[in-house]
Design a protein that fits this description.
The complex is a heterodimer of chains A (112) and B (260).
Chain A (H helix, E strand, L loop, with lengths): L2 H9 L14 E7 L7 E7 L3 H12 L7 E6 L11 H5 L22
Antiparallel strand pairs in A: 1-2, 1-3
Chain B lengths: L5 H29 L8 H29 L5 H6 L19 H22 L5 H29 L3 H15 L10 H8 L10 H14 L21 H16 L6
Helix pairs in contact in B: 1-2, 1-7, 2-5, 4-5, 4-6, 4-8
Classes of the chains: A alpha+beta (112), B mainly alpha (260).
Chain lengths: 112, 260
Amino acid sequence: MSTSDRAARTSGAESDGAPRDNQWPLWEVFVQPPGGEPHEHAGSVHAVDAESALQNARDVYARRGEAVSIWVVQSAGITASTPDDMGPFFDPGNDKPYRHPQFYKVPRGVKV
Amino acid sequence: MSVRTSGQIEKGSRQFEYLVRLGDDRLVLGHRLSEWCGHAPILEEDIALANIALDLIGQATLLLGHAGKLEGEGRDADTLAYLRDAIEFRNVLLVELPKGDFAVTIVRQLFFGVFGLLQSEALQRSNDRDLAGIAAKAAKEVRYHVRHSADWVLKLGGGTDESRERTQRAVDDLWRYTGELFLADDVDRAAAAAGVGVDPSTLETTWHSHVEDVLARAGLTIPETLYMQRGGREGRHTEHLGHMLAEMQIVARSHPGASW
């Protein structure tokens, strides 16, 4: 599957970026909570351009003081993994505990 | 309780009147805007308009509550909002007109929003500290309202033939109601002289440059009308306010004193 196919399938848009239905383009919304944590995906909104997407995101996801910063990105611009990718992408990590720092004992004499 | 002289009563009632004007503009516009709830063109806009309506109603609650306290006759914000008749309302006519189509609503939000922003920014310096606090909170909210409505006016003006025509029609229809925003009478001048309020006529030039800039960028023109409607500040309203209040007040009037 090509990258553009994936983008199209995950965002519900045609590969040329145009919406398939008569809805306005879809935007994914990421909000940063007060306190400096990283931006987190909050949901999505429809909007005709980036400024409207920001305003809609503010009204839908940040009207109760949940955020100090908002990112919006067109859903068509996101390439997502698919359920088919689950095996090859994620399973190999399951039997490799040495990839976690906790796997290693702290040498004597090192203070933690 | 000390006996108040007639001069103090006069001064107090003028300040009450001034605060009621501020409160009524926002209460009536907030209610008109709330009529979009469940009817806006898209879900996101439905939420946006309801948010703005709630901001305005919240500002009105604070302003009318403050007015009621100053009056000292036991009327709170709810009493003032729900138990006065149209003739006692002091809002400008602009805010009581029916919500119309989306273009009418958005153009009105721009017209009143810019006015409300300039007014709130000036009132932050009021020597009535409660009013200054309310204005500081309102200014933050209204700054967003103006961004929202100005953005929409640009989109509608530069959109399809139909959106441009409807928005131009809204500008044509509403323009004659904008003059009343800047009319100043003894109440306004007394409030300004006392350092409590702002004389609305001092906001006119800035309002025009801001609004006309947005309209020009949207490709919209200002109608050549010299006649301006007025009357709201004296309680002479359009027929629309009575109908709106009937709906807004029915629950409070049907169940006097009920709390929920």
